[in-house]
Amino acid sequence: MTAHAAPVLAAEAITSAGTTQLVVAAILGIAAVILLIVLAKWHPFLALILGAGVLGIVAGAAPGATITSFKAGVGSTVGSVGLLIALGSMIGALLAESGGADGIVATIVRRVSGSALPWAMAGVAALIGLPLFFEVGVVLLVPIVLLVAQRTDVPLLKIGIPALAGLSVLHGLVPPHPGPLVAISSLNADLGLTLALGLVCAIPTVIISGPIFGNFIAKRVAVAVPAAAMTTAGATTDRSGGGPVGGRDFVDRDDLVNPGARQPDAVVDAGLPAGRRYPGFWSAVLTVLLPIVLMLLRAVAELTLAEGTVRTTLEVLGDPVVALLAGLLLAMWTLGKRAGFDRVRTSSVIGGALPPIAGILLIVAAGGGFKQVLVDAGVGDVVANAARDADISALVLGFLVAVGIRVATGSATVATITAAGIVAPLAGSLDRPEVSLLALAIGCGSLFFSHVNDAGFWLVKEYFGMTVGQTIKTWSVMETVISVVGFACVMLLDLVI
Q1: How many angstroms separate the CA atoms of 148 and 116, rounded?
Q2: Residue 108 lies in a domain
Q3: Minimal CA–CA distance to 44: which of 317, 412, 468, 466?
Q4: What are phi and psi of 381, to 5 degrees?
Q5: Model-level pTM greater than 0.85?
Q6: pLDDT in tens, 91-114
Q7: Residue 466 placed within a domain
Q8: For residue 195, what are the domain limits?
Q9: Torsion angle, CA of 73/76/80/82, rounded to 10 degrees?
Q10: Total domain count, the chain
Q11: What does DSSP say about strands 237-238 and 243-244: parallel, antiparallel, or unpaired?
């Protein structure tokens, strides 16, 4: 059994263009994507399709060959990444809708106080950030952050920054989030090893960008707890229509206690509909960690055990699809049945997790097609040869390409997809740990300096009631710290493994 994700499709070159023409084609293709997203305000899905067309035409590829290459990349990416994103979002939906995430947050916050609160918020954000998309994690955590800041003498940013850092680091560096999965698939990296190395980098990155930076910036940027944010953050549902506000929630939360109206220092069942109760703290924690543990065990088995029944069993259980499916089946009981959901309600929550990720899946799929056209046209080989001639580290190149596209488009996913496609040929000359580190380097670059062209920037600004200037000084700088510290950790790991 291989230890890798679905390999990059091998295909004959779709053009015989020279180096200069391929470089121009790549520049114009990427420029088309950036301009359509930034200036024309097109959806990234459409921008990536047209960008792939521009790339193929300028590179001199036949239209039919370009279309075939694009469709092959879409199919490969959806098959290797889409299934994992769907399973992960289903676990996240059950965690959110059952109140399991609220229970984890409230239980931990209730047991700490004072100077330990920022560290607790960073830890709990990282924990619930494993299965949840960043936006959903923000919606769940913001009410607790605001309530704790309101009822203690701890500045809002001192506990808010650690919470945001925990969510953002996990979103950018650790599978099964879309960005890391795309990089792993494009580079044919080992998912289990990438997961293990990602967690190693995530710990110091969360500490530095969370509690340490939060303590530093809270003394320099004063942000009061916004009364309006207290109301909107706590009410994630439009009560008049029963739907999610801003499309951020998975399904209708009318039958859940409003987390913004609950005391953060106690998890109680009062106010829940008849037959409903909160899942236990440890049930929720173990459910979240099960897929991660299974994938890590697989990586350890492949590195330490000889071929045999035990290793084969761990490899099967640690396969990403099997691990996430096992986590979902466990969540259906620990977070569904034990919360009082009947089978219809559990199925509704799981099914409701899929529509919100449709846009993400389409972007990832189109990005996979764009990446495949880059590879099949030979652009990646040109970049790889230039990097070797100039003696540029593949890790540095991947990081810098991702940084440039992230700053230009505001999209971490587009940055990850494009950077992975450009440096993919370099992965063939690296050993297995270095390929995983390359995926992480690209993930770090994709988080660099979130600003006004990033939806996450405005989400944080509105929830915390900050001005644009305050958001740049806090959130944008925090994202940059995450990117730089994470990449530094990647480079240090490259020296020792």
Answers
A1: 13
A2: yes
A3: 412
A4: -65, -40
A5: no
A6: 888 988 888 887 887 787 778 877
A7: yes
A8: 19-496
A9: 70
A10: 1
A11: antiparallel
